[in-house]
Amino acid sequence: MSGEKTFKVDGVRLSGSLTDPVGDMPVVVFAHGSGSGRFSPRNRHVARLLQDVGLGTLLFDLLAPDEEGDRRLVFDIPLLSARLCEVTMQLLDGVRTIAYFGASTGAGAALHAAAEPDADITAIVSRGGRPDLAGSRLSAVRAPTLLLVGSLDTTVIDLNRQAAELLECEHELVIVPGATHLFEEPGTLDAVADHARSWFVAHAHNP
Q: Positive or negative CA dihedral for 62, 179, 153, 137?
């Protein structure tokens, strides 16, 4: 199954790069934020570190190339969530379990999608995310959720703290020392990957 994949969703074709998991480990679906994508070096670096412990990964773009310039779509969380749900359903035809890794607005979409009544997501990790964009649906999320925020990303820290108060599932907020919003400082992205893979592995067989 590993390789380039195309998902037909909502009348558009979304491209992705899939790496199979080892055994019954989940596939971690990356939901990117604005200005990022499946070819982002940061996303691919984290994906490789997740793959090192047997996790599968799917890096794909929630918007088609001709949609990416429309700022309204970038922040259209219900649209992004619906597309993520549809890709998840298509992916479940070939894999057993799925987790979400969301960044920036993609984290809001991931949590919004995971709040669906029939969502069967093993775990969620948010990196510098905007979980607040999931709004009132946060209380319906059942998947264990890890919120990772840079210590220098003060506005997003506050938004994550507010969102954490609305989560009723198992959750944890971790502040990564010395990191700004994009985790570009030396060692900070590796710290994100370490936290993420520990969380995903610990909840790999979450019922």
A: positive
96/20 Cα distance (integer angstroms): 11
Listed residue (12, 181, 21, 202) closest to 122, CA to CA: 202
Q: Any bridge partners for residue 50, and if so which? A: none
Of 120, 141, 146, whose CA–CA distance to 198 is shortest? 146
The model's pTM: 0.95
**Cα 99 from Cα 203, distance rounded (Å):** 9
> How many beta carbons lie within 10 A of that of residue 114, not counting itself?
29
Q: In 61-76, which positions are buried (b, 16+ CB within 10 angstroms) versus exposed (e)?
A: bbbbeebeeeeeebeb
Residue 207 has pLDDT above 70, yes or no: no
Q: What whole-number distance in Å separates Cα of residue 44 and Cα of residue 21? A: 16
Q: Which tokens sit at 62?
A: 């929630």
**What does the pLDDT look like over 170-190, one tens digit per residue?**
999 999 999 999 999 999 999
Q: d(Cα 148, Cα 182) in Å, to the nearest integer?
A: 11
C-alpha 12/C-alpha 8 separation (Å) is 6
Element (H, E) at 23: none
Note the CATH number of domain 3-202: 3.40.50.1820
| Contact between residue 190 and residue 168 where contact means Cβ atoms under 8 Å apart | no
